[in-house]
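Readers of this paper often ask what the protein records in our data store actually look like. Nothing more is needed to write down the fold, since each code stands for a local backbone conformation. Below, we set out a record of this kind in full and without editing:
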Amino acid sequence: MNTKEGKVSEGGLNVTLTIRLLMHGKEVGSIIGKKGETVKKMREESGARINISEGTCPERIVTITGPTDAIFKAFSMIALKFEEDINASMTNSSVTSKPPVTLRLVVPASQCGSLIGKGGSKIKEIRESTGAQVQVAGDMLPNSTERAVTISGTPDAIIQCVKQICVVMLESPPKGATIPYRPKPASAPIIFAGGQVRADTILASAGNHTVLAQPQPAPAFTIQGQYAIPHPDVSPAHLTKLHQLAMQHPPFTPLGQTTPGFPAYTFSNLNVWEMLCNQWSTHN
């Protein structure tokens, strides 16, 4: 959340804001609308700039920029659209209790302390005065210095909550540089080209669990016939770690789609890991 040449005035906010929201793909599709009609209407009626991050990630960043009145109008339209979606989903559903509208702000971690307040006093005050539920994530979002702040409630409660959060953020600017959160694709396949591993990461899937090994700066293995030979730069400790991962999550399952132009392979059992460790022991 950034500000430009603005201040908090006695009559309210008088500032230009940039607020980032974290949304799932389905939520993004809802505010974009058919042929982009919904987001176009939101931009025109609110006067705010609404940008949506590109890509096919499960999560997307929606950035809203403009004067405070425009920001709050855009938030109101988004909250009302989500409530409309909830009502539509309940039409043919047996569920009787209506779930709240939920939005997730992305806030620099250095500002979260001010939002929570001493002993949780500030966040408690915001909850009680707006009627919205507010939760600040304990951990930072991956590869960033930002945290997710989840707001739930009626559209009116959410708007009042956002206004109070904006005041807190303006009174307590971020400290130091902020590394913004950028959503990543869910997974990447293990790809071999020219007999070498080309994936940036090695993923092992078992049921609903995924193990992510550290990225490798150089190809880890070469393929000769039906055998996998360790690359000379791979350490025994790394091979041991890979072997342990395999032992914990057998068997490996296919990992997504292949990249055009490169054949993709996955390991169907533990034999390759056994060979790797045995061969390394033999050569050392």
Observations:
- The first helix runs from residue 25 to 32.
